[in-house]
Specification:
alpha/beta, Enolase-like, domain 1, TIM Barrel, nine-stranded mixed beta sheet, 12 helices, 14 strands, globular
């Protein structure tokens, strides 16, 4: 199974969103698929995929442990890790196709079927008022989701100071959470993603201020490297009955080990696009399990990462639930063909087709484009 080509493909699916993919074609005509979406870094990811193609064309695609090995000191940081993670996804797809098994069976068999999902309503919310967030949450609940997540605090960034603008953004964020909680009622879990917008002191105040909303978890309140303060905030959150979740942009087991040992999070969120490969996430999950930590992989982008994440999550013992983008664009379902990715009352059914179960469909959508106004403040990652 010799690699003939490793190709990057980027597609513009909305005015604010590109999804990017890696296709690995073998000389005998098989195609393996991975996703390498990394917002606003498309040229760099494309260049890294081109480097992989130049270095690995002609290699045996079965040698995944060698040619897609994640190294902690990998040059290129998250860009290189994202390209490598997508390459690993594609090699897993190829290997499972060759074995005539779906990826979850090739990995040793499913522990969870169906896979529980939660709806990330953030990009599908318009207008971004409290009422708009509440309406988006109710659309997800109407489709059977038992848990929803919002990121309510844009455009606040604590380094800008305790300004009137930041205070207003904070108050608006709390109002958005309150509106969602009231709309969905006590029977639906609500999660809040803070996108690293808070200082340590601000995160402590945030925990206090959101406690009346009975959150299932609070996510990424402050910078990922501040282990001592994250652990302190986790304790505060736990005392109020909520989990602390995070670590969505890290790569490699070595990056997650200190978080696990320091007791930073109740829930870890490695992303199949960034964490260094499918087996690397399984290793992270195994280490987390020894500390009683749950796994809820980060998955707010395109359908290929979603399909891989469903296979992966089905095999993780300490799996909690999987994120999925909700309401942003129908391209999520139309951009692939094969297994049906449409949500089934807040769950994902496992494909039984060999490999990933989906391929990229013909599309009239344009190639990726530069986003003049990034979705997140560049300081937030």
């Amino acid at each position: 199974m010799i690699i003939d080509r490793i190709a990057f493909r980027g597609i513009s699916v909305t005015p604010k969103t590109n999804w990017c993919f890696v296709e690995v074609t073998t000389q005998d005509g098989l195609v393996g698929l991975g996703e390498c979406t990394l917002a606003n870094q498309e040229p760099l990811v494309a260049a890294e995929v081109a480097r992989l193609d130049a270095n690995l064309r002609g290699s045996d695609a079965r040698a995944r442990n060698r040619i897609a090995r994640y190294l902690p000191h990998i040059p290129g940081g998250l860009v290189a890790a994202t390209a490598l993670s997508a390459f690993d996804q594609a090699l897993c797809d190829l290997a499972a196709q060759r074995a005539g098994q779906p990826i979850h069976a090739w990995l040793g068999g499913a522990l969870h079927d169906p896979v529980t999902l939660y709806a990330n309503i953030n990009r599908g919310t318009n207008p971004r008022t409290p009422a708009g967030f509440a309406q988006a949450a109710m659309r997800a609940v109407a489709q059977g989701f038992g848990a929803v997540k919002l990121a309510p605090f844009d455009p606040m960034v604590w380094e800008d100071g305790h300004t009137p603008a930041n205070r207003a953004a904070y108050a608006e964020g709390l109002a958005r959470i309150a509106a969602v909680r009231e709309a969905v009622g006590p029977g639906v879990e609500v999660m809040v993603d803070a996108h690293w917008r808070f200082s340590a002191g601000g995160a402590a105040a945030l925990v206090r201020d959101v406690s009346p909303f009975n959150l299932f978890w609070l996510e990424c309140p402050l910078a990922e490297a501040n282990h001592r303060e994250i652990a302190r905030i986790r304790g505060m959150a736990n005392e109020r009955g909520m989990r602390l979740a995070g670590a969505e942009t890290l790569s490699g087991l070595a990056s997650y080990r200190p978080l696990i040992e320091a007791g930073c999070y109740d829930v870890l969120m490695p992303d199949a696009k960034h964490a260094g490969g499918i087996e690397e996430i399984r290793r992270i999950g195994a280490l987390a399990q020894t500390a009683g930590i749950e796994m809820a992989p980060h998955n707010p982008t395109g359908p290929v990462c979603h399909a891989h994440s469903v296979h992966l999550c089905a095999t993780i013992p300490n799996f909690l639930m999987l994120e999925v983008q909700f309401g942003e664009t129908e391209a999520f379902f139309e951009l692939v063909e094969g297994a049906d990715l449409r949500f089934d009352r807040g769950t994902a059914r496992l494909s039984q087709a060999p490999g990933l179960g989906v391929t990229l469909a013909p599309t009239t959508l344009p190639e990726w484009k530069r986003m003049d106004r990034p979705w997140l403040d560049p300081r937030l990652g």
